[in-house]
Amino acid sequence: MNALSAEDAVRFASTLLTEPGARVKSDITLPLHTDEHVVGVRKLVREHALALKLSLVEQTKLVTAASELARNTIKYGGGGMVLAQVIDSGMRQGLRLVFADDGPGIADITQALRDGYTSGGGMGLGLGGAKRLVDEFDIDSRSGEGTAVAIVKWKK
Ligand SMILES: Nc1ncnc2c1ncn2[C@@H]1O[C@H](COP(=O)(O)OP(=O)(O)OP(=O)(O)O)[C@@H](O)[C@H]1O
Ligand SMILES: [Mg+2]
């Protein structure tokens, strides 16, 4: 297995981590290789969402988005990791999640985001669905190098 270290992933995802003014209040990384890891991510995200006092609906949206992206990291990226950061813009707090892998990358991001597009016999709803469930959504993907998908949910 081509293990991606937390440091590698953060470096890879660095273009997605530049949010001028947003202070990182906490930082945690979890591995993403197995179904159990997906369960772990769901739990972590739920805990953070609760701590941020997101409504039950917003908590569920965030957990659902995280779940979809975690599954993609494992299924298409060959595994990787997730970085979870509590961030503070000065005005509000939020949770940023970055899902990173060193898999094949996404050749056509527009196509991958289209509802119904799948290369793996799925429903093709994960990426587009995740995007609609969060406040910010970014993909950095390089052919043959890997993919990083960053999402942010703010406490409104
Ligand atoms: N981390 C990734 N690395 C490489 N390709 C990816 C990655 N994530 C998504 N993709 C590509 O984007 C496509 C669309 O992803 P999406 O999550 O929307 O659908 P799916 O996973 O195929 O199906 P579903 O999530 O509905 O079960 C995938 O089929 C795959 O080709
Ligand atoms: Mg998917």
TrEMBL record:
Pfam families: HATPase_c_2. InterPro entries: HATPase_C_sf, HATPase_dom. Residues 57-156 form the Histidine kinase/HSP90-like ATPase domain. It comes from the Bacteria. SUPFAM superfamilies: ATPase domain of HSP90 chaperone/DNA topoisomerase II/histidine kinase. This is Anti-sigma regulatory factor. It comes from Duganella zoogloeoides. The lineage of its organism: Bacteria, Pseudomonadati, Pseudomonadota, Betaproteobacteria, Burkholderiales.
